[in-house]
Amino acid sequence: MDCKQIEKNIIFYIDKEMSSEKNIDFISHLNHCEKCNVLVENITKTIDSTDIKSNIPDDYYFYTRLKQKMDSKSIPTPFFSKRILQPIALFSLLIIGGYMGIFIGNQYKSISMTTEDNRTTQIKSYAEENYLIEMSNENFESLLTSNQ
After folding, report:
1. CA distance 25 to 31
2. Residue 17, SS3?
3. Whole-angstrom Cα distance, residue 100 to residue 1?
4. Would you give the distance in Å from CA 65 to the centre of its chain?
5. Cα–Cα–Cα angle for 32, 36, 41, nearest 5°?
6. CA torsion sign, 54 to 56 to 59 to 65?
7. Under a CB-based contact definition with an 8 Å cutoff, are residues 31 and 60 in contact?
8. Residue of 48, 47, 44 whose CA lies nearest to 36
9. Computed from CA positions of residues 112, 118, 120, 124, in that sequence, does the dihedral angle turn out positive or negative?
10. Nearest alpha-carbon partner for 37 in 3, 86, 83, 79
11. What's the CA gap between 110 and 102, in Å, rounded?
């Protein structure tokens, strides 16, 4: 075997799922190749350190206790809060949201339905309050002649 074949078959060697012929070739290569030998040792140590199942003792009564807790009626279910209060709260939020949408929509509708005359007067009054309208107070020709 060469080093590439060793790398491909390491897991089979560790799990002892390799045929006897391959196992002999594998071990003979490990005896001659230090690099592959170190690699196999490192992988074996890694697998051994992550083998958690062997460190934890089996709890034979775990499933029995779990089933007993699941079948037990001692844990009260919050019927009132889950089955009654949540739907009522959700429904009331939807109703409040609908009324708020209608209220806001009606205000916008009343603003947008003003007549064109009202709109132009509102624009003019807004402009007079917020902008300087100096051009309407002076004659344009006087501005041009004064710069010369």
Report:
1. 10
2. coil
3. 79
4. 35
5. 115
6. negative
7. no
8. 44
9. negative
10. 3
11. 12
- Cβ contacts of 2-5, under 8 Å, gap ≥ 24: 2/29, 3/29, 3/33, 3/35, 3/36
Tokens of 56: 């934890």
pLDDT tens per residue across all 148 residues of the chain: 788 988 888 888 888 888 888 989 989 998 989 999 999 999 888 888 776 655 566 777 888 888 888 887 666 666 677 778 888 999 999 999 999 998 888 776 666 555 667 777 877 877 777 665 555 555 555 656 655 4
- Those residues with Cβ within 8 angstroms of residue 81's Cβ, 6 or more apart along the chain or in another chain: none
Task: Compute the distance between CA of residue 104 and CA of residue 100 in angstroms, rounded to an integer.
Answer: 6
